[in-house]
Write a structure and sequence with these properties.
The chain has 169 residues and is mainly alpha-helical. It is built from nine helices and no strands.
């Protein structure tokens, strides 16, 4: 990552970690990063791209850092979200791309394949079964994460077992 992108990501992470935002714009980022709009647009097409880049290069990277199996990914994800609640809720609520089922299913599927499943599973069946994970996570995030961590982890483990059972037959 070049220094400009790193600065933009650090700035945005700091801002989105400080308080809940209903809207965070390129204008907000220009003010806090002290960078021009043209510099930001040189690196990113729109604010959605910046949210996505931050999510993939900060959140996903930190979650997956030391995981060696899918069960660890589940625990690491929940722990990261709880430790970075404001940032994660802001990213979840501010971006439309990350709320799209296809995007989140893709992330779930990729991490599941990385640790648990062969790559030749039928996509439609896999997405249908992965929808349970998506439901648990979106329900938890939409409910402001009031459900106990252990319950959410257990629900995700249960869905993981269902997926493993049905997709490895």
């Amino acid at each position: 990552m070049n220094l400009t992108k790193k600065h933009l990501m650090d700035t945005m992470e700091t801002q989105l970690s400080s308080c809940a935002y209903e809207k965070y714009t390129i204008t907000d980022l220009t003010k806090t990063s002290k960078m021009s709009r043209s510099t930001i647009y040189y690196h990113f097409d729109c604010i959605e791209d910046i949210y996505l880049y931050l999510f993939e290069n900060t959140v996903i990277r930190k979650v997956m850092l030391e995981c060696t199996n899918y069960d660890e990914v589940i625990v690491s994800t929940i722990d990261y979200i709880l430790a970075n609640k404001i940032l994660c809720l802001n990213l979840y609520h501010l971006t439309t791309l990350m709320n799209r089922q296809d995007y989140l299913l893709g992330i779930l599927s990729a991490s599941f394949h990385r640790f648990e499943l062969p790559l030749n599973t039928p996509l439609l069946t896999e997405n249908y079964l992965m929808g349970g994970f998506l439901f648990v996570m979106t329900t938890w995030l939409d409910g402001k994460m009031v459900t106990d961590k252990k319950i959410v982890i257990q629900q995700l483990h249960d869905y993981g077992n269902i997926v493993k059972t049905h997709l490895t037959i």
